[in-house]
């Protein structure tokens, strides 16, 4: 039994942590809930008990064995070292340490053993990256993926509670004939979309797009894989979707790909397009697997394959993946 802390317990991902730690019977002796000073004094329910939320400070981690961080990059940069110094193992959901060569970047379906190489901190990958690599990895093992082109359709909850609320508020305002307030996103999200997730970098890509490129190579240990991404925010509340095109060294037919996906851990194939049998964000809300559909030959390339990937990014892209990492450590 562990003393566990969640830094960022009041956020959308923090809320999923509370639900999943309970649902998965994670062994917890004491649970500490941490957030900003704004939330100090609130109470959140866990296993029938009201637990007070405390302000995250450098001293929050005394006696904590395992700390899940989900309070943003700046908080991770500032407070993760304090948690590690206090003796906790940290599983961090932010981008703060993902590309640090000393920090394992773990997706349990792909590189579970790397979790044991940690020096106090384990990074949870970017949400769009996780669902893509869960689908890419079995194909890579079977036929060596040489090139990936991906376009994402990312939900508003990917930007936290404020992102979800902005879509709901703008939709209500539009229905009432009121003007729309734009504050969480760079543009109106209701009845709109934009190819702009996270900040723009000097190379013309966004930071989200480069996370998908660099983190994929690290998780799959495939530095030579050619990857390009376009990340798009869409007016969906929860679950990210991705259109993926790949080029493999050995030809993979759609039938072979379906078989590979069916046998791979963490994947559910939903691929009967004529009956509406393709994954959609509304349908995968609050699920745990990565859903794959629209599997077809990319006839623009002799060794090309196209498919569609949808997953609940608050679960598999964040809280669930982190808890699965903790479960690997628990199992030893
Ligand atoms: N949303 C996703 O799909 C997703 C997926 C993968 C990873 N992540 C990562 O998970 C983290 C949280 O994301 P989220 O979507 O849950 O965001 P969120 O809903 O905005 O929640 C943010 C959390 O951080 C806390 N926080 C903010 N400022 C703080 C401060 N100065 N000191 C202490 N706590 C502070 C908030 O506490 P208050 O409630 O007190 O403000 C809240 O608990 C981010 O690092 C994000 O990159 C998110």
Describe this structure in words.
- 44% of the residues are buried.
- The chain is an alpha/beta fold.
- Helix 1 (12-23) packs across helix 8, helix 3 crosses helix 5 and helix 3 (127-143) packs across helix 8.
- It has helices at 12-23, 73-85, 127-143, 161-175, 207-219, 254-263, 281-284, 315-331; strands at residues 2-7, 28-35, 43-46, 49-55, 66-69, 89-92, 121-123, 145-154, 226-233, 240-248, 267-269, 290-297, 304-311.
- It has two domains: 2-125 and 318-331, NAD(P)-binding Rossmann-like Domain (Rossmann fold), CATH 3.40.50.720; 129-313, 2-Layer Sandwich (Dihydrodipicolinate Reductase, domain 2).
- The protein has a seven-stranded mixed beta sheet, with helices on both faces. A six-stranded mixed beta sheet has the order 9-8-10-13-12-11.
- The protein is built from eight helices and 13 strands.
- Strand 3 and strand 4 (49-55) form a beta hairpin.
- The two termini are 14 Å apart.
- Helices cover 30% and strands 25% of the residues.
- The chain binds NADP nicotinamide-adenine-dinucleotide phosphate.
- Residues 8-14, 35-36, 38-39, 56, 70-73, 75, 93-94, 127, 157-158, 160-162, 313-314, 317-318 line the site of NADP nicotinamide-adenine-dinucleotide phosphate.
């Amino acid at each position: 039994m562990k003393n566990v802390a969640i830094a960022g317990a009041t956020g959308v991902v923090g809320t999923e942590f509370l639900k999943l730690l309970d649902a998965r019977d994670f062994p917890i002796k004491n649970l500490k809930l941490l957030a900003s000073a704004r939330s100090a004094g609130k109470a959140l329910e866990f296993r029938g008990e009201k637990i007070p939320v405390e302000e995250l400070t450098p001293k929050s981690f005394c006696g904590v064995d395992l700390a899940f961080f989900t309070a943003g990059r700046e908080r991770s940069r500032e407070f993760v070292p304090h948690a590690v110094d206090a003796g906790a193992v940290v599983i961090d959901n932010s981008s703060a340490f993902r590309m640090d060569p000393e920090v394992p970047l773990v997706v349990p379906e792909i590189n579970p053993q790397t979790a044991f190489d940690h020096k106090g901190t384990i990074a949870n990958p970017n949400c769009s990256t996780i669902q893509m690599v869960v689908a890419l990895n079995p194909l890579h093992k079977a036929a060596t993926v040489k090139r990936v082109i991906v376009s994402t359709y990312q939900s508003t909850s990917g930007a936290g509670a404020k992102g979800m609320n902005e879509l709901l508020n703008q939709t209500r305002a539009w229905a009432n004939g009121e003007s729309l307030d734009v504050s969480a996103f760079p543009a109106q999200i209701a009845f709109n979309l934009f190819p702009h997730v996270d900040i723009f970098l000097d190379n013309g890509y966004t930071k989200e797009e480069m996370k998908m490129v660099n983190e994929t190579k690290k998780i799959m240990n495939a530095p030579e894989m050619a990857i390009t991404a376009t990340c798009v925010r869409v007016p969906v509340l929860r679950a990210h979707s991705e259109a993926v095109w790949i080029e493999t060294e050995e030809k993979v037919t759609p039938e072979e790909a379906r078989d590979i996906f069916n046998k791979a851990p963490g994947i559910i194939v939903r691929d009967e397009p004529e009956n509406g049998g393709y994954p959609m964000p509304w349908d995968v809300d609050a699920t745990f697997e990565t859903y794959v559909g629209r599997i077809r030959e990319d006839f623009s390339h002799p060794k090309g394959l196209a498919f569609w990937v949808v997953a609940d990014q608050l679960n598999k892209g964040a809280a669930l993946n982190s808890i699965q990492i903790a479960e690997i450590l628990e199992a030893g």
